[in-house]
């Protein structure tokens, strides 16, 4: 699907959340590049299906466990001399998290704290953290990495920004090399939730009408997962905490997603039923756009537009 | 010491960390103003000595417990119909926290999460959170509330910024009224740690020489605790998350603190032994200055300069 040249040095890498939607793609590519991968995942959103094609690979091992099981996590760190951690373990479903703050406090923030504690204890210095546009809160201007007055409006965004804050402290106190990548909406093969996934599920049940949360005018950038993985592998690990928005210049409305899904399913005349209001759910940021000059200057750019990403994801999910 | 007019409405108030240095002063003033106060404190840094003068007051109750004991905290919330929470429970000793990240993760961040969960569960909407200049990290420009790219360099600063991030999410999801006040160094009667406290302790042991961490040129604003309490009572609780720096325009070097303490102790010719380097300890921000235009425009200004605050604190500690 995309080409990554093998690294000069083979590394021992932990992927937290490695059986999830994005984590499993990262697992594929880092194994392909010749690294030794340990995947830790509680299979809460992830699934064995996403990684079982690696079960015979001697460079791959999978631990089904909760990152927050500190004793077990320390065993994993003690057994494997990790040189780098990719931390993607989180509740990535903002809508679900809105119903109970404990979900994001535990799955999104506490996982980060447990990872940081284990890295500190075992002297692991390199971290890539999967952050999110949700840390910015509901801002109308193009989001820059250095933007001030960040006020997340969802538990998910709060837990991710809180994670960044703790990472900042650990990075400074322990001279770590940290990349923080703030993801927009990510789509592609192996989706576990989100608009594309939900619409397909609903239309399979009833191909005549489609309930759409909000007024359908919510408009966000969708990145194709392969493009995002490229960004994750492209950015160097440098001393300190290095924050990048990774995304696309274009954006797709929720109504447009419905149109694309219907087209790809060959459905015509589907009646859209909007639940109304400008947001899809409490904590939803209905519209945002990244300033991507930092990551573009660094030399990375997404290959697919937002609409293309949505269409590819729909095709892959059908 | 200062005059606060009683509130129109008597309120049921929880002060988390109410037996600590700042919390106990707040307890004094809010009781004086006619409110019903429940103080929860684990007496880790606080002490019964600081609040025992209220033990006979029927408007005051004290629970010696850890905020993170969720079951007990929920009992306290269920028993008292709180209308407002002042959350000052934290490990306020940055230097101590630097030795073990678990201290600030538990005492500074988890306390906030437990408070937020309890407020959410029991429908309490008003919160004042004691934050810190340390959330800004090591910046040389005057610190504005809306400054971007906040990168705390201590576990303490990280845990406070992480707390702010979670508060932002809870405030937005539950339409809360939150005041966040970012404190500078605070001094006054009942100090439990810090330069003034340490210097007096050291000079009592050996009045001939004084070890000073760093090169003595670290220069920070010190606010007198009574001034800070005034700010806390002055600022209105408004919907959303309202962030204020509270501080003084002036600043005091560590060497000047030593000079003032020696003067107040009547010691002459004390030999200063500097441990060297520009910072006092890992995670120390050696120099900062607030932009105070927001809180000054709101109508509050500190009565004492930084040097005056240090001198009054030295007098009170002797």
Task: Give your account of this protein's structure.
Two copies of one chain form a homodimer. Chain A is of the alpha/beta class and 318 residues long. In chain A, helix 2 (70-79) runs parallel beside helix 4 (101-122) and helix 6 packs across helix 8 (254-265). Chain A is built from ten helices and 13 strands. The two termini of chain A are 18 Å apart. The radius of gyration of chain A is 19 Å and the shape is globular. Chain A is 37% helix and 18% strand. The first copy, chain A, has a domain at 12-187 and 223-248: Rossmann fold, CATH 3.40.50.720.
Radius of gyration of chain A: 19 Å
- State the largest interface: A-B, 43 and 43 residues
- Runs of chain A in which pLDDT lies below 50 for 5 or more consecutive residues are 1-6
Element string of chain A (H = helix, E = strand): EHEEHEHHEHEEHEEEHEEHEHH
């Amino acid at each position: 699907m995309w080409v990554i040249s093998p690294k000069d040095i083979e590394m021992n890498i932990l992927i937290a959340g490695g059986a999830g939607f994005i984590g499993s793609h990262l697992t594929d590519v880092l194994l392909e590049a010749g690294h030794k991968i340990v995947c830790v995942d509680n299979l809460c959103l992830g699934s064995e299906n996403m990684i079982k094609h690696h079960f015979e690979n001697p460079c791959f091992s999978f631990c089904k466990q909760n990152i927050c099981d500190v004793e077990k996590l320390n065993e994993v760190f003690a057994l494997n001399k990790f040189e780098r951690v990719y931390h993607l373990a989180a509740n990535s479903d903002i809508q679900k998290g809105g119903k109970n703050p404990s979900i994001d406090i535990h799955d999104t923030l506490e996982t980060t704290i447990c990872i940081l504690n284990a890295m500190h204890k075992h002297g692991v210095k390199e971290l890539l953290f999967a952050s999110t546009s949700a840390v910015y809160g509901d801002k109308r201007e193009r989001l820059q990495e250095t933007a001030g007055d960040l006020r997340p409006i969802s538990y998910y965004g709060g837990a991710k920004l809180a994670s960044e804050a703790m990472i900042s402290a650990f990075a400074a106190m322990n001279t770590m090399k940290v990349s923080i990548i703030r993801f927009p909406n990510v789509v592609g093969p192996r989706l576990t939730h989100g608009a594309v996934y939900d619409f397909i599920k609903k239309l399979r049940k009833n191909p005549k009408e489609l309930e759409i949360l909000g007024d359908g005018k919510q408009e966000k950038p969708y990145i194709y997962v392969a493009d995002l993985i490229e960004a994750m592998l492209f950015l160097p690990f440098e001393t300190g905490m290095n924050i990048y928005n990774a995304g696309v210049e274009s954006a797709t409305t929720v109504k447009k997603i419905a149109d694309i899904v219907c087209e790809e399913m060959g459905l015509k005349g589907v009646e859209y039923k909007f639940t109304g209001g400008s947001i899809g759910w409490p904590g939803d940021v209905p519209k945002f756009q990244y300033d991507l000059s930092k990551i573009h200057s660094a030399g990375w750019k997404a290959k697919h537009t937002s609409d293309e990403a949505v269409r590819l994801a729909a095709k892959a999910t059908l």
